């Protein structure tokens, strides 16, 4: 098989999601409490020398076109006109299941076919009957957002990568330790970071990428007529259905599932270090069933975790000292928002040891099928990216629209069955590779 040379060209996405989660004992899927606590999310994307990133902009005529391309962008700095403003007021996530990014299933076998349950901003009517944005975003089952990538220097296969070791790059999902406040008998107050053993949302987080190479003629004309036009780009690709537009399939569409922490099983120490296949739900012949055949669009990363040098705790103590008077009366939830948001600015990569990827998903499938369940993966090849799973091929100087999803997989074995408060951080870096 041709050797794949990975070039770290693409995208780092840092996302901090704070949600309070209640897990119902009547079924395995986690469910949000009726009063979720959330601080929104921070999304940062950075590009290398061979790829550029742009936000998705919706024109007055309703066309989706790329905004200004750059090598780095912070989604949190964009407003509602680019469809990202809701990220700062996200109310939380409830676990769902999908194997294709089109059909979404929630607990009780309710199926969302039309993105109705996506965690998106809602529009309401004002006193004059006009549609206005309701800035308070209600709870939803999953997040999705669109962005554009382009490769000015060549054709590349796009993959997810551990990165090249830079301080702000790499792919990972980790739980965010909660601040803990303790008062001694002498009245001394100590503030430390605390991670409860066996409680993890990161083990069931999934990131999905929906991509297709459909040419967009009307959108291209709208792009040419816009202030964002770049003469280097002569065509656009990537068509996706909008909410409530109906359920339909696109022959050339591919959904890639990124499963971080694939060998991490906080609820079963005996399984920790092995891989247990997730079988997300699907709709077949009108019936809802498990879909065991997802190997051709699944990329699995081993566990990522905070560095054992205690640097994150040192940073927290430094923050407490620096903002002592400001933080002295803060609650643990407020301390979390101040520390992870204000002090660290959503940048966690420096403090995280990233897990490697299983080199070939096909070998992982063989191992699982041989083991009939939990597969020992110590002997499988590991590398910076999965070789045999590609998000999409980027054509030189052709901007590609990609739809990204973030959800908690209800079919995952690591979905707990007891009360838990879940906070986690997601960082994603995409990489391009060429085959010789």
Report a brief summary of the structure.
By secondary structure, the chain is mostly beta strands. It has helices spanning 217-224, 311-322, 324-327, 332-343, 361-371; strands at residues 4-7, 12-18, 21-23, 30-32, 44-46, 52-58, 64-66, 72-74, 104-106, 110-112, 122-125, 131-134, 143-150, 156-160, 172-175, 178-183, 189-194, 205-211, 254-259, 274-276, 281-284, 287-290, 298-300, 305-306, 352-353, 357-358, 374-376, 382-383, 392-394, 400-408, 423-435. Helices cover 11% and strands 32% of the residues.
Range of strand content: 25-35%
The tally of helices reads: 5
Which whole number gives the mean pLDDT? 78
SS class: mainly beta
* Uncertain regions spanning at least 5 consecutive residues: 1-41, 417-421
Largest sheet at a glance?
A: 8 strands, antiparallel
Shape: globular
Give the helices and strands, then pairings:
Elements (H helix, E strand, L loop, with lengths): L3 E4 L4 E7 L2 E3 L6 E3 L11 E3 L5 E7 L5 E3 L5 E3 L29 E3 L3 E3 L9 E4 L5 E4 L8 E8 L5 E5 L11 E4 L2 E6 L5 E6 L10 E7 L5 H8 L29 E6 L14 E3 L4 E4 L2 E4 L7 E3 L4 E2 L4 H12 L1 H4 L4 H12 L8 E2 L3 E2 L2 H11 L2 E3 L5 E2 L8 E3 L5 E9 L14 E13 L1
Tell me what you see in this structure.
By secondary structure, this protein is mostly beta strands. It has five helices and 31 strands. The protein is globular. A hairpin with a 3-residue loop joins strand 9 (104-106) and strand 10. It has helices at 217-224, 311-322, 324-327, 332-343, 361-371, and strands at residues 4-7, 12-18, 21-23, 30-32, 44-46, 52-58, 64-66, 72-74, 104-106, 110-112, 122-125, 131-134, 143-150, 156-160, 172-175, 178-183, 189-194, 205-211, 254-259, 274-276, 281-284, 287-290, 298-300, 305-306, 352-353, 357-358, 374-376, 382-383, 392-394, 400-408, 423-435. Residues 1-41 and 417-421 have low confidence and may be disordered.
């Amino acid at each position: 098989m041709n050797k794949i040379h990975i070039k770290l060209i693409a995208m780092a996405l840092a996302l901090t999601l704070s949600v309070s989660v209640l897990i119902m004992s009547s079924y395995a899927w986690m469910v949000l409490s009726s009063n979720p606590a959330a601080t929104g999310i921070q999304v940062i994307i950075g590009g290398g020398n061979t790829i550029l990133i742009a936000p998705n902009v919706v024109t007055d005529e309703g066309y989706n076109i790329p905004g200004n391309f750059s090598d780095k962008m912070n989604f949190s700095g964009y407003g509602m006109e680019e469809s990202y403003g809701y990220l700062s007021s996200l109310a939380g996530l409830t676990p769902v299941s999908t194997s294709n990014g089109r059909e979404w299933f929630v607990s009780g076998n309710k199926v969302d076919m039309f993105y109705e349950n996506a965690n998106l901003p809602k529009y309401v009517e004002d006193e004059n009957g006009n549609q206005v944005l309701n800035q308070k975003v209600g709870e939803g089952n999953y997040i999705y957002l669109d962005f554009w990538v382009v490769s000015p220097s060549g054709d590349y296969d796009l993959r997810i990568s551990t990165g090249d070791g830079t301080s702000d790059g790499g792919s990972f999902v980790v739980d965010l330790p909660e601040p803990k406040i303790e008062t001694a008998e002498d009245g001394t107050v100590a503030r430390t970071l605390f991670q409860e053993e066996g409680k993890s949302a990161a083990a069931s987080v999934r990131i999905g990428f929906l991509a297709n190479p459909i040419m967009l003629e009307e959108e291209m004309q709208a792009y040419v007529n816009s202030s964002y036009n770049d003469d280097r780009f002569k065509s656009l690709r990537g068509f996706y259905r909008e909410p409530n537009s109906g359920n339909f399939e696109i022959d050339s569409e591919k959904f890639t599932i990124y499963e971080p922490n694939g060998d991490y099983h906080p609820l079963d120490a005996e399984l920790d270090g092995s891989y247990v296949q997730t079988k997300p739900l699907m709709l077949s012949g009108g019936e809802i069933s498990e879909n065991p055949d997802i190997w051709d669009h699944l990329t699995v990363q081993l566990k990522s975790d905070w560095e054992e040098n205690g640097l994150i705790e040192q940073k927290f103590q430094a923050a407490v000292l620096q903002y002592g008077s400001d933080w002295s009366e803060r609650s643990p939830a407020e301390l979390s928002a101040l520390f992870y948001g204000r002090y660290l600015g959503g940048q966690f990569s420096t403090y995280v040891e990233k897990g490697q990827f299983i080199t070939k998903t096909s070998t992982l499938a063989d191992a699982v099928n041989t083991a009939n369940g939990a597969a020992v993966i110590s002997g499988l090849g590991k590398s910076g990216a999965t070789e045999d799973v590609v998000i999409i091929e980027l054509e030189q100087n052709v901007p590609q629209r990609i739809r990204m999803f973030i959800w908690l997989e209800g079919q995952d074995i690591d979905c707990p069955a007891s009360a838990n408060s879940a906070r986690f951080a997601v960082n994603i870096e995409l990489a391009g590779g060429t085959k010789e």
